[in-house]
Specification:
single chain; alpha/beta; Rossmann fold; eight-stranded mixed beta sheet; 39% helix
């Protein structure tokens, strides 16, 4: 199916923005986007972005599924995008509040939206989706993990040492400090950060365009508190927990990923009983890459959902 291009720098016609209140009172911004009236409803798809992401960043991918008949829902994680608030607990304190938000939200979402129900999670969103599948067993027909944060790519530094380093910085009172001091220089130079995320200069520029209009969307580089929280959360995805996830899973990954650990993704795919792994020649943001990679990934997702989440 040929999908017409979307303006990646505008809210799409027909999309409805609202807020959802978590049990502790935190309000999350939500987008609901029903399929076009002339397209049969295929089911409902929940999209979960990564750390520092916001709804608008993945409008292009969501438009693709929208045009195929999926009722699209996405939200900004607490502490990100337009789900930020002053005076609340820092998201760096841990991932459990995010996981609880997902569990409660998805339960209400499934009850209110037409099936079959599927979920797509990118990076941190993929990690939280995988944890939710293992710990809460939401009744999704199928799920897709895109470059999921099952491990962090720490280069030559072993993961266990990186986790210990994060705890050390917390112990000496520097947990709220960013993990690198050259972040602003990297942003100003652009190339270093872009190369980690996507080969598409245009799509990278879209993110910065939204940052310019909504400065609060830019979270900056992770802190040591966030890194320590990430390692605590990833430790919950034990071999036993992964083996308990029975629903069909498609995992997209890349051996060129400089943010998440592809070796950990490969091992998780081996342990998950009903998972298939697809590798792409790509940077981290596979769904925001140049068209040859991006469209190949979208077509792989379409074929997977056609097999495992028939309407």
């Amino acid at each position: 199916m040929q999908v017409t291009p979307i303006d990646r720098r505008a809210h799409p016609e027909g999309a409805r923005f609202s807020s959802w209140t978590a049990p502790d009172g935190w309000r999350l911004r939500v987008m609901d986007w029903p399929p076009p009236r002339d397209v049969p409803v295929r089911g409902s798809l929940l999209f979960l972005g990564g750390r520092g992401d916001f709804i608008e960043k993945y409008l292009e991918a969501m438009h693709h599924w929208h045009m195929r008949g999926w009722h699209i829902t996405s939200f900004d994680w607490r502490g990100q995008g337009a789900s930020r608030k002053d005076g609340g607990p820092s998201p760096d304190a841990g991932f459990d509040p995010l996981l609880h938000d997902l569990a409660v939200f998805s339960q209400e979402w499934i009850a209110a939206h037409p099936g079959p129900h599927v979920a797509v999670g990118h990076s941190m969103g993929g990690h939280l989706l995988l944890r939710a599948l293992a710990e809460a067993s939401p009744p999704f027909a199928a799920a897709v993990l895109v470059a999921p944060m099952i491990g962090i790519n720490t280069g030559l530094l072993p993961g266990w040492l990186s986790a210990r380093l994060a705890r050390f910085f917390q112990k000496i009172g520097r947990g709220s400090f960013p993990v690198a001091r050259d972040y602003q220089a990297a942003i100003e130079g652009k190339a270093a950060r872009q190369n980690r995320l996507t080969s598409s200069a245009d799509r990278y520029a879209d993110e910065k365009w939204w940052h310019g209009r909504q400065p609060g969307y830019d979270l900056g580089i992770p802190t040591w508190d966030w890194v320590a929280a990430a390692y605590r959360s990833m430790a919950a995805s034990t071999p036993g927990a992964l083996k308990a996830v029975r629903i069909p899973l498609l995992i997209l990954a890349t051996d060129r990923d400089r943010l998440v650990d592809t070796r950990a993704i490969r091992e998780a795919a081996r342990l998950l009983p009903n998972a298939e792994l697809a590798l792409f020649d790509s940077a981290h943001e596979i769904l925001r890459e140049d068209d040859p990679v991006r469209l190949a990934a979208m077509h792989r997702i379409d074929a997977f959902l056609d097999r495992h989440a028939a309407s």
